[in-house]
Amino acid sequence: SISMEATMVVMVHTLAAILTLWLISRSLWHLVWRSYAVAGWFERQGIRGPPYRFVLGSLWEMKQMLVVERGKTPLDIGSHDYTSRINPFFHKWAADYGKTFLYWLGPTPTIYSTDLELVKQVLENRTELFQNDYLNPILERIFGKGLVTTNGDDWKRHRRVVHPIFNHENLKSVSAMTRESTQKMIAQWCNLIEKGDGHQAEIDMGCYAEELTLGVIERVIFGAHYKEAREGFAEGKEIQKLAVRAFADPQIPGLRSITSKTTRLIKERLASGVDGDDLIGLMLRASKSEEVESLSSDEMISECKTIFAAGQDTGATLLTWGMFLLTIYPEWQERLREEVLRECRDDDGDAPYINSIQALGKLKLLNMFLLETLRLYSPLPFLLRKTASDTTLANIKFRKGTMITIPVMMLHRSKEIWGLDADEFNPMRFEKGVLGAANNTYAMLAFSCGPRGCPGRNYTMIEVQTVMTMILRRFSFSLSSQYVHMPRNFISLAPRYGLPLIVRNLLDGEKSDI
Ligand code: HEM
């Protein structure tokens, strides 16, 4: 029996050794040989790129380049030339390897392309061939399994339940809630001015923009219960920051499961079953209806996180950069103010402000101005997709699992697409719409397009237009000497040290009429 035992031990050891060898060779195949095979496969199709490095792929090189850029002095205030600071690697590799090249997000092969035919085929595809995947488990934890991160049938189900939140009636209440929040902000500014020298005050527009969009989105999601949700959201923002740090630095180990107050609050509300016109109410009603396939309560929680994460920061960013551009182009501040005062009137000309979405539709210059803001300061600098099976795209053969980077920021600056003044601020380029400004509709991708384009586009435009019209009527504003022009990509593209502005009250003494 001793020899039996010895045989068993030998067998177990042999099996363990075989298993270990198998695991090692599989990892080596994945991390080394496969990478060379994939690089060779693309090279034979004329696509080259930076060399693959063990496990880290191109991430190490990307990080090194970012460190160099971060050490540089701030940009001139009037310069929009920040893209090479945020994406130095894309600039370098596009110069070295052309419009389409291969780089590595860790061991994952990734094709970068500014070929608009390829962009169109990826974004317009309706067969689930190109899936949303940001290769970041932590981002998935922030968004949960909601509209942004799901694919296929799950995504369709989420979409059917959630999309009514963007219908016309709800947009009207977004507009009303934005007006209310903006009135509060204006009252705070008036107070600050009064407490100061009576004429002007310095404020951080970045903070106010965040506060404002937060105030709206929490009411869109939680309705009457928004106050209780506040604390949870504050925590949500901290989690977002951690996640972005982890994404920027792949060495940081994964964060453990995050249970936030928000989740608890959502659970309580779901358990109480109280409806309402907010997102939770909408999802609860869908779960009672027999026509719509409903979401589980975990999926509902995910969807709240998604709408919060997708809709808050982006809107604040657009508002912040819009205000920034109006300070460095004061002639545009004047033009827009003039347009607001002219168009936003009642029929009898008395009441100076019409509270309707239709009134916003008349603000042509403001709309062109915001398109130009989105082009130069797109809140999201790139899109990522993953191929779900082998495919051919714009004459390039892709293997399943290849990532595709659509560099929105680079496309928005392409001289080939927008003309020689692509780097300059010129809202008039949009006088005849996007097609009049660029030679291709797929050139403007701030909200992406196709089936997975941003459903919050009108929501955001209404929100930002409302705030800006109200500010323009009431205040003139200029840049504080404290401002440092260093855009950074953190969650979305934001000024690194906020946006300090000097605001002056144009309607001295008229407190009530906002
Ligand atoms: C300036 C503001 C905004 C910008 C620039 C923006 C941009 C984008 C972009 C580029 C995408 C596509 C992402 C991808 O394909 O990977 C997207 C998707 C999405 N956005 Fe927005 N967004 C903004 C505001 C909002 C708001 C206010 C909401 C909600 C209240 C929202 C909700 C969503 C959702 C749910 C998706 C996922 C859609 C899907 O995959 O079906 N966004 N957004």
Number of strands: 12
Give the number of helices.
20
Q: How would a textbook summarize the main sheet?
A: 5 strands, mixed
Q: How far do the termini sit from each other? A: 94 Å
What CATH calls the topology of the largest domain is Cytochrome p450
List low-confidence stretches.
Answer: 246-259
CATH C-level class of the largest domain is: Mainly Alpha
Which ligands appear in the coordinates? Answer: protoporphyrin IX containing FE
How many domains is the backbone divided into?
Answer: 2
At CATH's second level, what is the architecture of the largest domain?
Orthogonal Bundle
* Mean of all residue-level pLDDT scores: 86
Notes on the protein architecture:
With 514 residues, this protein is of the alpha+beta class. The protein has two domains: 1-131, no CATH class; 144-380 and 446-505, Cytochrome P450 (Cytochrome p450). Helices cover 55% and strands 11% of the residues. It contains 20 helices and twelve strands. The chain has helices spanning 2-43, 59-70, 83-86, 88-97, 116-124, 137-143, 152-162, 168-195, 205-222, 226-248, 261-272, 279-288, 297-328, 330-343, 357-361, 364-376, 408-412, 415-418, 433-437, 457-474, and strands at residues 100-105, 108-113, 130-132, 200-204, 383-387, 391-393, 396-398, 403-406, 475-479, 487-490, 492-495, 500-505. The chain has a five-stranded mixed sheet, sandwiched between helices. The chain has a three-stranded antiparallel sheet with strand order 4-12-9. It has a two-stranded antiparallel ribbon with strand order 6-7. A hairpin with a 2-residue loop joins strand 6 (391-393) and strand 7 (396-398). Helix 11 (261-272) packs across helix 13 and helix 13 crosses helix 16 (364-376). It is globular. It starts with a helix and ends in a 9-residue tail after the last strand. Residues 246-259 have low confidence and may be disordered. Residues 132, 147-148, 159, 306-307, 310-311, 314-315, 318, 379-380, 383, 446-448, 452, 454-456, 459-460 line the site of protoporphyrin IX containing FE. The site of protoporphyrin IX containing FE has 23 residues, from helix 13 and helix 20.
